[in-house]
Design brief:
single chain; 307 residues; alpha/beta; Rossmann fold; 2 domains; seven-stranded parallel beta sheet; three-stranded mixed beta sheet; 12 helices; 12 strands
Length: 307
């Protein structure tokens, strides 16, 4: 299958591109910079210049493909409304290009859209009042194409997609611990974070592209929820620092932004039982705590590539 991929040069994207190519698919990746194009080409993908704001490029890439994987996401995170509109418009453009074709369209959301305080399943509705609500319109836009002749599905990725060179939430947590001299958690640290290894996530994207029925909601979580205090304590041991509980107000000034403190204090466990049964997905890579302890997280601070 010839697959058009957005976000293929980001953090999780290269593993998805590699998984697709090594299993016999061909890939064209959207590239918004020369550096992004070079990274995609090094993986064996063709490139199409453009960005999420370049709707003509999105349309052309989708029309020329036999399937689409949409992972690109971003903008000014102080402007949730703007990010939401950008993501929804990109998804609607990609989906319209596939309308009534029967082709697969896999879009990306996050587990943080789900209600807090309980284990959510793929059949539960996201929390429209929660801090991840700005991703819901993108989910709905993608799933709507299931009624317009597109085999569309949404993957809600765990907030922690871990692996080498991670500059995401765990990478930022470790950087803050290095800078502050403490490995912090919020309150009693009993809040739970879903996690998935990057290579297991890549396998899930491929399986969704190949097999997911139209309208599927999938959970990209190998671990339902890792207690955040345990994450902080593992980092503390590795850096030889104390693990310290912070109040909500203390966390708001300790972490890079108040919103990060909210994320780090969130209790959003999710089940992926339906996803595993539906697609035969069986995560086998190291757990988050194993990866923190034995991977490259504590060796150095990874630099974030341009993409």
């Amino acid at each position: 299958m010839h697959v058009f991929v957005t976000g293929g040069s980001g953090l999780t994207g290269p593993s998805v591109v590699t998984e697709l190519i090594t299993t016999g698919h061909t890939v064209t990746g959207l590239a918004r910079s020369r550096e992004s194009a070079r990274r995609l080409e090094s993986l064996g993908a063709a490139t199409l210049p453009g960005s999420l704001d370049d709707l003509d490029s999105l349309r052309a890439g989708a029309e020329a493909a036999e399937g689409v994987v949409h992972m690109a996401f971003g903008g000014d995170f102080a402007d949730h409304e703007g990010i939401m509109r950008r993501d929804r418009t990109a998804i609607e453009t990609l989906g319209e290009a596939l309308r009534y074709s029967g082709k697969p369209f896999v879009s990306t959301s996050g587990a943080l859209v789900m209600p807090t305080g309980r284990v959510s399943t793929e059949h539960d509705r996201p929390d429209t009042a929660g801090f991840g609500a700005f991703r819901i319109p993108g989910e709905d836009a993608c799933l709507a194409f299931a009624h317009r002749g597109v085999r569309s599905s949404v993957i809600r990725l765990a907030p922690t997609v871990h692996g080498p060179g991670d500059y995401g939430f765990i990478g930022m947590l470790i950087a803050t611990a290095r800078q502050s001299g403490i490995s912090a958690y919020v309150g009693d640290g009993a809040n739970r974070w879903p996690a998935v290894h990057r290579l297991d996530a890549a396998t899930l994207f491929r399986l969704a592209l190949e097999r997911a029925p139209a309208g599927s909601v999938l959970h990209g979580a190998a671990e339902t929820g890792v207690p955040f205090k345990t994450i902080a304590e593992t980092i503390a041991r590795g850096l030889d620092l104390p693990a310290v509980s912070l109040t909500t107000s203390e966390a708001a000034t300790h972490f890079p932004s108040p919103s990060m403190a909210v994320f780090y204090g969130a209790d959003v466990p999710v089940s992926s039982a339906h996803t595993r049964e539906l697609l035969g997905w069986s995560p086998t890579r190291p757990t988050l705590l194993d990866d923190i302890e034995h991977g490259d997280y504590l060796a150095a601070s990874p630099s974030r590539p341009e993409h």
